[in-house]
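Bench notes, afternoon.
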Amino acid sequence: MQVIIGAGPIGTATAVLLAETGVPVRQITRSGSGPDHPLVERIAADASDPGLLTPLVEGAETLYNCAAPPYDRWTTAFPPLAASVLTAVQRSGAGYVMLGNVYGYGPSDVPYTEDTPLRPSSVKGRLRASLWTDALATGHPVTEVRASDYLGPGAFSLYALLAIPAVLAGDPVLCPGDPDVPHSWSYTRDVARTLIAAGASPASWGRAWHVPSVSDLPARALSARLAALAGAPAPVFRPFPPDGYTDPVMAEVPEMLYLYDRPSLLDSTATEQALGLKPTPLDDVLRLHLRPRIREWS
């Protein structure tokens, strides 16, 4: 049995991929949500409570932590969740696969590799780095899979939330950052595939892996490709308004703008070689965004 915490796009994709190979999955969320599959057992529980979580992890081979608190509550909600999961895996003996990102690295003028030192420059970056170093310090079998900004249905990223709907509607694109700097993009299902491959490899423990990117195109070029596939007008980018950061979630974005104002590239050479992974073709991923929204423009 495998345990997954969280049922967002990554947790759901991970559960489905495992179940499709005949692996029983126990998916834990506060609401009891998750994919409808005979091999997926959905359980409603607060994973930040180790007393509730630990018995649910007993007997599991691996725990995949795909949960993340609301973006504006990271500093208060992430530490107790991470501490609870660490307690549960140590008591149960399950291997621990963490879903992470590039925040812990801090700004870099060269592509991030799996061996890039953690030098965070932001509050959220220091938090992400500490979650990893705290897990490593236990000596328990733990690995972290790091992704860049998400693409794919249900993806939660600035680009997916702000740019893709505008491109498909033929509206001006208002998205923070410089749209002409190279940027790595991670497909949600590729993230799930990397989590599963890392969890299955004895070589994974004690190190991090990078999700193979579907593209390193700048946001403007990526949007032009999406528009061409949709038959939409060529996208027009306009500066993101200064008052766009007043929402509680958007107010958390400015400290991370270095990821969008300068190149932010994820090198996954080591992951691809060790785990045998390749990214899904970009156009296949972009077409997934068209299915519910495709229309004709005149």
